[in-house]
Amino acid sequence: MTRSNRTLNRMLLALVGVFFLGLAAVLAWPWAAESLPVLPPAPRLALDSVALWVTSGVALAIVVLALTWILSRGRGGTRTALTVGDVSVATAAVEHTVRDELADVPSVLAVAAGAHRLRGRTALEVTISTRRSADLPALLERVRSAVRALDTALGAEVPLVVRITTGWRSGLAHVQRAE
């Protein structure tokens, strides 16, 4: 989820929450005015038909825009990395190929792959999680050789984005030995 989507999501949730809070207050006011003598009696609202239609139109426009925005999210992700004729290669095969190429690198903790359709073409994204003390120049050379092996295995060059990350998992990971 990108930062703009996250911000829009939070704003939308806040607006929906404020709307329902106000609606609950309006609906509960007559009951609360009878139960608590400190509250003034609930006012009688005289809505004319123009105000009602304008409010309904604005609410309908907001609902249509919200549905359009919701239904347009999440497009582009695919599990197919490459299709040649009738043969499709899954992203799991890409992940396993890169993982096998980097299996003997001790600073690599995990490899993940994903594919996205962009303008009719498939672009691959490979994320490599490493330890904090990883030798980046050596790791980059190994990643380049893994990408060459991937291109050889696929039989074609596919657009590829490689992300090398560290995080809380790298701080908790330790070398495992079998003796």
What report would you give on this structure?
With 179 residues, the chain is of the alpha+beta class. The chain folds into 2 domains: 3-71, no CATH class; 77-172, 2-Layer Sandwich (Alpha-Beta Plaits). The chain has 5 helices and 6 strands. It has helices spanning 3-35, 49-71, 91-101, 136-154, 168-172; strands at 77-78, 80-84, 87-90, 108-118, 121-130, 160-165. The strands form 2 sheets. It has a 4-stranded mixed β-sheet with strand order 1-4-5-6, with helices on one face. A two-stranded antiparallel sheet has the order 2-3. α3 packs across α4. The longest helix has 33 residues, at 3-35. The two termini are 43 Å apart. Residues 175-179 have low confidence and may be disordered.
Task: Summarize this structure briefly.
The chain has 179 residues and is α+β, with helices and mostly antiparallel strands.
